[in-house]
Amino acid sequence: MSQTPSQNVIAFQGEPGAYSHQACRLYRPQMEALPCRTFEDTIEAVRGGRAELAMLPVENSTYGRVADIHHLLPESGLHIVDEGFVRVRISLLAVPGTTLSEVAEAMSHPVLLGQCRGFLRRHGIRSLVGADTAGSALEVARRGEKALAALAAPLAGEIYGLDELAAGIEDRQNNTTRFLVMAPQPDFSRRNNADGESAMITSFVFRVRNIPAALYKALGGFATNGVNMTKLESYMVDGVFTATQFYADIEGHPEDPHVARALEELDYYTSSLNILGVYPADPLRAAQLREQGA
């Protein structure tokens, strides 16, 4: 049975100092961050009342969507109430007093190791796979060996008392992860983002009816009604090739007339339609459009 949520607590997956922890600090700085072992544990912390919100990563600008997360979102019973983008800045962290020339191995999650190949090659540092980024920093602190360093967020160095030997060592300088803030109850109210703008995002999942050109017809309503779809992804359901579910983000609020018409048309061609959340568009979206000259 669900309990009254612990007020002012936000759950995240990973050890303290993980990028998800950094997202909590950036977007809910007033809340206590609760580390959880898995995404499932993070969701259950909210469902079971140990946390008020959950911070979940859904996609990365370099590596695409986070594995399994879109399977978990519709079944979680939680609702998206906000989004945030975290720039992935990678530091080389070592025990105090270590110099860069003393480091022989760098431990981290395989994804981060792959993002720092150039730096590691230039300094003759071997890669060592760890469970995750912050967990690798914790392991380096535990071992206390100068030859072993970690690749992680600067926050991890702060938490585990490690020296930052090099900062911003990632090969791609625009690597960004998108996070969703999840809550037990939906919030469909119109509200402004951090820049005071009223732009809204609506996220939903749907399955199309088993009729010819169903997906084409279902999506046609967004085009004819002038609704911008910023994301559309498909994935199998229960490992069955013939059962496909789609995840989509669109600009606008379900009560906007053109959005309402598009969703009504979509509903006609779908066997299921579930709105996961309605929330303010992060200011980074508009900033990227300006950079692209759109």
From TrEMBL:
What keywords were assigned to this record?
Answer: Amino-acid biosynthesis, Aromatic amino acid biosynthesis, Lyase, Phenylalanine biosynthesis
Q: Where is the ACT domain?
A: 203-280
Q: Does the keyword Amino-acid biosynthesis apply?
A: yes
Which enzyme class?
A: lyase
What EC designation does it have? 4.2.1.51
- Which Gene3D superfamilies does this one have? 3.30.70.260, Periplasmic binding protein-like II
Q: Which reaction does it catalyse?
A: prephenate + H(+) = 3-phenylpyruvate + CO2 + H2O
Q: Provide a GO CC annotation, any one.
A: cytoplasm
The source's superkingdom equals Bacteria
Residue ranges constituting the Prephenate dehydratase domain according to the UniProt record: 9-184
Task: Name its GO BP terms in alphabetical order.
Answer: L-phenylalanine biosynthetic process
Q: Which GO terms describe its molecular function?
A: prephenate dehydratase activity
Q: In which pathway does it act?
A: Amino-acid biosynthesis; L-phenylalanine biosynthesis; phenylpyruvate from prephenate: step 1/1
UniProt-annotated site: Essential for prephenate dehydratase activity, residues:
T177
Q: Could you identify this protein by its name?
A: prephenate dehydratase
